[in-house]
Write a structure and sequence with these properties.
- The structure is a single chain.
- Strand 2 and strand 3 form a beta hairpin.
- The protein has one domain.
- Helices cover 71% and strands 3% of the residues.
- By secondary structure, it is mostly helical.
- The protein starts with a helix and ends in a 5-residue tail after the last helix.
- Helix 5 runs parallel beside helix 7, helix 6 runs antiparallel to helix 7 and helix 6 runs parallel beside helix 15.
- The chain is built from 15 helices and 3 strands.
- The mean pLDDT is 88.
- It has a 3-stranded antiparallel β-sheet with strand order 1-2-3, covered by helices on one side.
- It is globular and about 55 Å long.
Length: 376
């Protein structure tokens, strides 16, 4: 009897593998591979340890994704309140004990020279807890009280991140909230009022000098980078030169002149797309964008096919997270958006971002795996 039960269990496990979202898994693997290739090119001459650290983070993230894929996503609804508390405490811990680098206090130091950036995990925790809250509240989101409470749910961790200071990530929090309450059925007039209030709030941050000087300088240099070519405009100008020099097919892998001379600022993190554009040209840049497009389409397809409301909101939050990062990162590297320090998922160096991105994919795989029935 025990042997028969084990055989049935083994059969079910094998059949469940057929429910894995292969397009999502394949595009994720291709993006990770492209990221490793780009990071190696950006760092092999001057800091090879960065590439080795990324491999360590990749191993950790892959294990985490597999574990999360095996857990039914609705399990996280039962722990929504503790997860939200963990999110807030984690961000408070950064403000109290975090390491300061380049005028920002965003990292926790780990043994072996590693750093952890809790704000990257905070995005994923916000998606989980807000999706749970919206699912439980149901139609309440269509009332003023429900709408304001959902905004407060987002505002607490967003303000803690803004305090670090990290304007870019706090904007990501707002974008996640906006997209998820829209998917949950919030009324359009409240959303438009939020846009107006956000614009007025940003004007207030500028007028009352709440924004740091370097943040103001970055926004001003977006309009006219030539006005300060050695300081605030340097990032944009050097990125333009590198991207333009790539032309159609690029200068060849590992042969980017701007990259090798290290004229590209933060070329292993925020500006790694510039490395791709310089070495692989327009063809390589469009190819990478196409790969991201296939990945995002896989997430969108999973979202619209989800039968469970929590699953749908979870997938919608993850879709927003990756889309916002992609558009903002590439937009700032080619001069369409101000420089706000948003990394490119799977491509930029950073263990926290890589682990969080793989964890998000693990949650998506869990949605597909646990929503789809096992077909005999």
């Amino acid at each position: 009897m025990a042997t028969r039960t084990a055989a049935v269990g083994s059969l079910i496990d094998r059949l469940r593998l057929r429910q894995v979202d292969l397009p999502l898994l394949l595009t994720t693997l291709l993006l990770v591979g492209a990221g490793l290739a780009a990071l190696y090119s950006a760092t092999y001459q001057w800091l090879p340890a960065v590439f080795r650290r990324q491999l360590v983070w990749l191993a950790v993230g892959a294990v985490g994704a597999v574990v999360l894929a095996a857990i039914p996503p609705r399990v996280w609804m039962r722990f929504a309140k503790p997860l939200y508390a963990l999110n807030v405490l984690m961000l408070l811990g950064v403000l109290a004990f975090g390491a300061e680098r380049k005028g920002a206090q965003r990292w926790l130091e780990l043994p072996g020279g590693f750093q952890l950036q809790p704000s990257e995990f905070a995005k994923l925790l916000l998606i989980l807890t807000l999706a749970s809250w919206l699912t439980r509240q149901g139609a309440t989101i269509r009332t003023p009280k429900g709408f304001l409470l959902s905004a407060l749910h987002m505002a607490v961790p967003a303000l803690l991140v803004f305090k670090q200071p990290d304007l870019g990530t706090s904007i990501v929090f707002a974008a996640l909230w906006f997209a998820m309450v829209y998917l949950a059925g919030a009324q359009a007039r409240w959303l438009w009022l939020t846009v107006v209030a956000g614009a007025l709030g940003f004007a207030g941050l500028w007028h009352f000098d709440i924004l740091r000087d370097y943040q103001k300088a970055r926004l001003a240099s977006f309009m006219n980078p030539e006005a300060d070519p050695r300081e605030s405009g340097y990032h944009i100008l050097q990125a333009r030169i590198a991207v333009g020099s790539g032309q159609l097919t690029g200068k060849g892998y590992l042969h980017g002149a701007q990259k090798n001379l290290r004229y590209i600022p933060e070329q292993q993190t925020d500006f790694i797309f510039v490395v791709v554009a310089e070495e692989l040209g327009f063809v390589g840049a469009v190819g990478l964008l196409g790969l991201f497009g296939a990945f995002l389409y896989s997430v969108w397809r999973l979202m619209v096919g989800a039968r469970d409301e929590f699953h749908r909101l979870l997938a919608g939050g993850v879709l927003t997270l990756f889309t916002f990062h992609l558009l903002t990162n590439i937009g700032m590297t080619i001069g369409l958006f101000p420089v706000v320090g948003i990394p490119l998922p799977f491509i930029s160096y950073g263990g926290s971002m890589l682990i969080a991105s793989l964890a998000a994919v693990g949650l998506l795989l869990a949605v597909r795996l646990h929503e789809s029935p096992v077909r005999l």
